[in-house]
Structure of Corrinoid adenosyltransferase:
Amino acid sequence: MRENAKDPERHARRMAAKQKVMQDRIARAQNEKGVLLVLTGPGKGKSSSGFGMVARALGHGMKVGVVQFIKGKFTTGEDTFFRDLPNVDYHVMGDGYTWDTQDRQKDVQAAEAAWEIASNMLKDPSYDMVLLDELNIALRYEYLDLDRVLDDLFNRPEMQHVTVTGRYAPKELIELADTVTEMKVVKHAFKDQGIKAQKGVEL
Amino acid sequence: MRENAKDPERHARRMAAKQKVMQDRIARAQNEKGVLLVLTGPGKGKSSSGFGMVARALGHGMKVGVVQFIKGKFTTGEDTFFRDLPNVDYHVMGDGYTWDTQDRQKDVQAAEAAWEIASNMLKDPSYDMVLLDELNIALRYEYLDLDRVLDDLFNRPEMQHVTVTGRYAPKELIELADTVTEMKVVKHAFKDQGIKAQKGVEL
């Protein structure tokens, strides 16, 4: 389904529209709008950074939606911490679902169900910020249609901030994004020194 | 005062001790220990990532100390969000202090007072994690003695995790760290497109 993403017409249309929107905005010299931020690359800190932004947004009284596109059912610290806070709408892909099978079709279904939730957030201006944690992984495995994802991101409410995390951000997403940070590994305790992965810290 | 940091004897002693500790640990194949994590580079997401780790640690029921080495007295979203949570001991350098002067000596004093607080956290095993936000900036301006900082980090409780953020991490700190991520700018809304910095999102 990645082929779709390379559909030159849709791409050109999206880019032309994006360019026009940007030019209009710059012309108006107003320049306050929702930002699409992508955190990618192999270094550690991508999801943490996304969740730090959630905390900051909550500190500003914003309403935040979180969808975690992670495979496997386990409890992360963020889950425990953010899940029941007011102003946070928190969803984990495959929640309550067993991932023990190696069934690609089930993975696709779970990813699509998660995107359904995300897609609704991206249509709802009451969400000031949406974190799509590890979305890039779902895209990498082609569990989701890239063009649908890009269209939903592009058509979101003007003031809504979105943060997308995960390695291997597709270049079309990088193109659409306003700000992109690539996390580079300078040193890695886990790999270089054989230190065990531990709760509470992202090694 | 940076000269001190290059004192080859202290450096060699620290590195030899570090190497021995690491070798012992690997030999014991135990490999569970506090991690010194450094988040540096020009890309966005360093502080957010540190605060995301704080949230995760809190989600695991850990006790966390935060010292923000930032110049200027203002309220960030993280401040509002984390400050009054149980299990968080939150300090901002120069809190209650006016930074309107261009007085280097006062900056040094404020940084040293903040390090005093950090240093006490780094001696107290009841803190499972310590976030030293923007410490690299205080080191960059040589507001703090690098060797004192490195010694305190090195001598901290064995199981304590520390995250240091900020551009321009000194190479001696990178050497001491277990995990280092460099945030690279791929695209930057603020710079590239003239979008105004906004509350709730780190552009």
Remarks:
- The domain at 45-166+176-184 of chain A is CATH 3.40.50.300 (Rossmann fold).
- Chain A touches chain B through 65 residues (CB under 8 Å).
- DSSP finds nine helices and six strands in chain A.
